[in-house]
Design a protein that fits this description.
By secondary structure, this protein is of the alpha+beta class. It is built from 2 helices and 3 strands; from the N terminus they run αβββα. A 3-stranded mixed beta sheet has the order 1-2-3, with helices on one face.
Length: about 90
């Protein structure tokens, strides 16, 4: 079920602090986060956020089209390995 529009988007407080720190410094550095459930808000546009997928951090450059989606959507947690029969047939 989606979050109520009345409550507004959820963004982890620690992530907001990190984003504010990077914006005031003016440097183009990557912000690391484990908060996959945080929603992308307009303040994030133009920044690179490294989202943890359970094993490593996946760098994600935030664009305007991503606003309203969750950070976890851009860092897949599962890697599909082709079945051996598909490898032989070339499909």
């Amino acid at each position: 079920m989606a979050r109520s529009a009345k409550k507004g988007p959820y963004v982890a407080a620690s992530l907001i602090k990190k984003i504010d720190r990077v914006k005031e410094s003016g440097k183009r550095e990557t912000v690391k986060t484990w908060s996959r459930r945080s929603m992308v808000v307009p303040e994030f546009v133009g920044l690179t956020i490294a989202v943890h997928n359970g094993r490593k951090f996946i760098p994600v450059f935030i664009t305007e089209n991503m606003v309203g989606h969750y950070l976890g959507e851009f860092a897949p947690t599962r890697k599909f390995v082709m079945h051996s029969g598909q490898r032989k047939s070339g499909a």
